[in-house]
């Protein structure tokens, strides 16, 4: 009888050990990001997600984050996640436009939505549905991964007064915006980030766009180009988390939920962090470089850019039914959302200016 009791106790104890978090097999994933691991706020979401997953899982879900300085393939993230070398990636959806033009809709497009409008489209419109449809063929899931807000239109060595001033201009500007600029005679180039300051300083290029004050100040562009134009081309640039579909589907449901909630929180945190950095950076720029002139492109230039953007959209829509479907849904939602954006934000800011609260 005593031996039987001891045997039952031993079995029960073993079962408890196997069921305990300490004995459970840890999940170890790797995440590759397009940026250097030190380039905040772009590199912030993966680092914070990894820390939160470790804490929420009591150390059972570990994500090792590797920046481009480690894997050496900043624009190979989609392929590496698809192939399973990494279970996750952090990048920008519009980098894959050469693989599928429809990926651009999940970052931002010229004359598109603001961040608030775009997040509403993602989560309460058809954005996430379309994102899943586009990325299904790659064997990955894509989730919003952090927003830069409305990006500035770029640093220019000379003032842009007319459309003719754009002709022959050498400018670094990627994505659909580059195609739009090219229609107006701009010589578009895509120089690696580490060479941009030197290219602008030496006159190899006449202009470039990066992000906004918070990230631009780290690059030093304000030291060599005094015309700083407001944006039109990337009004809500959303980064992305990529997740290998097979790896995700194998996870216990609780870890899937943790991961999805963690990615959503990290994305919103980056938006806030980037805004805060730009607040401080712009004050520093103004104080140390009072010769910077903030400009908005003249209305005739903006109209020409809008016309060129519509032509680009029409050209892609004519040969790609999915592009047309997403475009129509995207701009339909934007039109609906813009009414509320104007009432809730634009008119309040106008009122603040008229009351002298802001300049």
UniProtKB/TrEMBL annotation:
<feature type="binding site">
    <location>
        <position position="210"/>
    </location>
    <ligand>
        <name>Na(+)</name>
    </ligand>
</feature>
<dbReference type="InterPro" id="IPR026289">
    <property type="entry name" value="SBP_TakP-like"/>
</dbReference>
<dbReference type="GO" id="GO:0055085">
    <property type="term" value="P:transmembrane transport"/>
</dbReference>
<protein>
    <submittedName>
        <fullName>Extracellular solute-binding protein, family 7</fullName>
    </submittedName>
</protein>
<dbReference type="GO" id="GO:0031317">
    <property type="term" value="C:tripartite ATP-independent periplasmic transporter complex"/>
</dbReference>
<dbReference type="InterPro" id="IPR018389">
    <property type="entry name" value="DctP_fam"/>
</dbReference>
<feature type="binding site">
    <location>
        <position position="234"/>
    </location>
    <ligand>
        <name>substrate</name>
    </ligand>
</feature>
<dbReference type="GO" id="GO:0046872">
    <property type="term" value="F:metal ion binding"/>
</dbReference>
<dbReference type="Pfam" id="PF03480">
    <property type="entry name" value="DctP"/>
</dbReference>
<feature type="binding site">
    <location>
        <position position="172"/>
    </location>
    <ligand>
        <name>substrate</name>
    </ligand>
</feature>
<feature type="signal peptide">
    <location>
        <begin position="1"/>
        <end position="24"/>
    </location>
</feature>
<keyword id="KW-0479">Metal-binding</keyword>
<keyword id="KW-0732">Signal</keyword>
<dbReference type="InterPro" id="IPR038404">
    <property type="entry name" value="TRAP_DctP_sf"/>
</dbReference>
<feature type="binding site">
    <location>
        <position position="209"/>
    </location>
    <ligand>
        <name>substrate</name>
    </ligand>
</feature>
<feature type="binding site">
    <location>
        <position position="151"/>
    </location>
    <ligand>
        <name>substrate</name>
    </ligand>
</feature>
